[in-house]
Amino acid sequence: MDNLDYGIIGNCRSAALISKTGSLDWCCLPEFDSSSVFAKLLDEKIGGSFEILVDSGYTVKQRYKKHTAVLITHFSDGENSFEIRDFMPRYRKEGGGYNAPPEVVRYFKYIKGAPRFILHYNPRLEYALGETKTYVKKNFVVSLTQGKKFDTFFLYTSFNKNAVVEGREIELIKDGYVLLGYNEKIFQPTVRKMYTELERTKVYWLNWSSKTPNYKKYNTQIGRSAITLKLLSYDKTGAVLAAATTSLPETIGEVRNWDYRFCWIRDASMVIKVIGDLGHKNVARRYLQFIVDLIPDKDEKLQIMYGINKEKKLTEATLEHLSGYKGSRPVRVGNAAYKQRQNDIYGILMDVIYEQLAKYSTDLENGEELWGITKGIVWIVSNHWKEADKGIWEFRTEDRHFTFSKVLCWVAVDRAIKVARLFRKSRKIEKWTKLEQEIKKDIHENAWNPEVNAFTQSYGSKDLDASVLLMESYGFIHAKDPKFMSTVRAIEKDLSNDGLLYRYKNEDDFGLPSSSFTICTFWFINSLFKIGEEEKAMVHFDRLLSYSNHLGLFSEDIDFKTKRLLGNFPQAYSHLALIECAINFSRKESEEQVLDAMRE
């Protein structure tokens, strides 16, 4: 498989990736950041997978059940056909809360004829570190490993268990199922029970999706992206993951391979803002509680990222025995970036806090705690905004005065002033306004480079950086300000490559990247739209959408030459930016239709 042709299924506890031919190639249980049960994605020989093997006469097509996270893979050779409906159960329990067990259900729907297939079942527990042995028992199949760690995994099925384990051919004459679970079941599953689980899960997603508004344009893409962002949220704590995978490389054969199964404050806050705008306020509320829980001490600085269960230490290790995606080593688990200082996170978090308070001020039970966090953030920003940091792109070497970090320090204070207005704290408004103006003046004086006629990556630099395009969306500068317009054009000239954007082109710790960071291209499209180049923006947007995979999903990067998807997948960043762009285009069309109607 040359592209990331995978669908994601999940239940806000964990997720799994299924290839376009129906192979389960990535799944960590019981939670997102647990060790893998199937990791063919990271090693085709030893990673482990669960494949559906049919003869060459079959064509295989894949789609999502509309408005849900149920993935349907359709197999047909003309005379014989069947479907697999893959899902992870999630639905409301009768007593409140959600049922979301650490399980994958593969429901086989009989359509016609006498279809035959082989199930190649090969779990490799604990990242395939030790040997996994599989045994057929009376009611289930159990796999276990006793390497460095003891672990077990269970399979229940309506098919002959020995035929499944031995890879013998199975003939489908009626609906069947395979249930893969982390825990042994107390009650024996049946086809009927699994069908009920499927229907309940389907109804859950239909209800969730019905809260997403309908838009004039790009409704399908907005809906699929919203579901994908929901799939990357962790219900238990409110954390939002950057992506569902680890170590998918930004460039094949290189070493920019990181574990993204964590909650970056920046990525998560941006996701929450977009999901909140779509009307899904429970996701936003849970995330704010996640933040409240993380800041027990008033003087404690925020880390840039945390584990999904609020872990503060994310030790990075290398899995030497895995060959990596398409041979791209190393495979990493954990992420050392948690130690970095990035001053932009305060502004991004403050923006979300303000948005939520402005929308639901009477509704939020933790208003006082959020006011306490607001004061704490301003205190930290006032003491540290003049310091250099690693910046949004996490340069692992020197610290610099990055423009984006400075702008977001300004955002932190600007939004704190707005929160103070909501709470009628006039003395704070007066004090904080002086700080806000001081930071703004500093940015205009030091980040603007008259030689290149643009705001640059860092103070005193000539290098351009896509992140400065966010100055406008965060309200630092007006879209029609000549300084912003010339920055957009300078970035287009310097960083655009066949319509895709580099994050930056100056040398970093790893040399010049050969792939585009997908979110940067969305930012650029948004900026073109805002400065009035709307038709050009639309052309770029439609072209970028055509680079998604067969299900409309995006990873972190796109290769400049081949346009293949690269980097961790699916990527929250990419999908939130897609939604922002699509909503802007859609609103514009609605406004034009209203104006046309008024003219008539």
UniProtKB/TrEMBL annotation:
Domain Trehalase-like N-terminal: 8-134
Keywords noted in UniProt: Hydrolase
UniProt keyword tRNA processing, yes or no: no
Single GO molecular function: hydrolase activity, hydrolyzing O-glycosyl compounds
One GO process term, biological-process aspect: carbohydrate metabolic process
Domain annotation GH15-like: ranges: 218-582
Pfam families linked: Glyco_hydro_15, TREH_N
The protein's name: Glycoside hydrolase family 15 protein
Organism expressing this protein natively: Pelagihabitans pacificus
